[in-house]
Amino acid sequence: MVFWEGYLSDEAMGTFAPIVVYWVYAGFYQLLPPLDNYRLHTRKEEDEKNSVPLASVVKGVLLQQLVQATVAQLLFVLTSKTGASGTVIQPSIPVQIMQIIIGMLVMDTWQYFVHRYMHQNKFLYRHVHSQHHKLVVPYAIGALYNHPLEGLLLDTLGGAISFLVSGMTARTAVIFFCFAVIKTVDDHCGLWLPGNIFHLLFQNNTAYHDIHHQLQGLKYNYSQPFFPIWDILLGTHMPYKLVRRPEGGFEARLIKD
Asked: How many helices (H) and strands (E) does the chain have?
């Protein structure tokens, strides 16, 4: 039993809930006061280094979400498995948890290798992936600001493969995709807030991904959105330290051997 049962289908929730969650969570960060004592970059840096206006970022994200919603609907229609009663038999909670973990590992694997290749292939970086890196100073609403081709290959296709390999139902996918969206937004929020559960539970977090957005960190910390496993295994893991800036806030500094 879920709260949307009787109002929306699992397929509809799996399609649109991640979009709503994205704008609610990113909007929360956007509406916060400046919080200069917790920023990883100053507001001056954000204004000077980011070369894309907010309106263009919003349009880019909406375009990607339109593609994601279309693919999600198609995916749910093709994989729907209803029983004799016309309802989908949901697996047990332990099985759903295992499916979500498998989905996380599959998504991490897909995104690591596609992301890394987009940095190594000069054509793809120049014409596709560099669009995301125009936000040198990440912020929450820009988490999914990508070139449309990157959005399709990295996020949309990666999500679809995670869903198929894990074998989760549309109902489980609602939880999985909403969690993935929240984690992705948080990784780009640009704030190191005390008590942030993602900073406590995940090594791959806001500061970790901030290193990748820095010029000297472009070839490191490709892993996203959950675990740094592939960075550690394949030598692209870049540790960092958080240093207090005299004027307030923090700076994520690379620790090179």
From this structure: 11, 2
Give CA–CA dist 206/192, Å, rounded: 7
What is the distance between the alpha carbons of residues 65 and 19, in angstroms, rounded to a whole number? 7
Helix (H) or strand (E) holding 82: none
Give pLDDT, residue 40.
97
Say if CB 25 and CB 182 are below 8 A apart.
yes
Alpha helix stretches (DSSP H) within 32-92: 43-49, 54-79
Asked if omega into 225 is within 30° of 0 (cis), the reply is yes
The answer to whether 162 touches 79, Cβ cutoff 8 Å, is: no
Q: Mean pLDDT over residues 150-156, rounded?
A: 95
pLDDT higher than threshold 90 for residue 158: yes
Judge if pTM exceeds 0.90.
Answer: yes
Q: What is the DSSP letter of 35?
A: -
Beta strands in the chain (DSSP E): 240-244, 250-254
Flag whether pLDDT at 212 surpasses 60.
yes
pLDDT at 84: 55
Q: What residues contact 22, with CB distance under 8 A and at least 6 apart?
A: 61, 65, 143, 144, 181, 185
Q: In this predicted structure, what is the pLDDT of residue 228?
A: 97
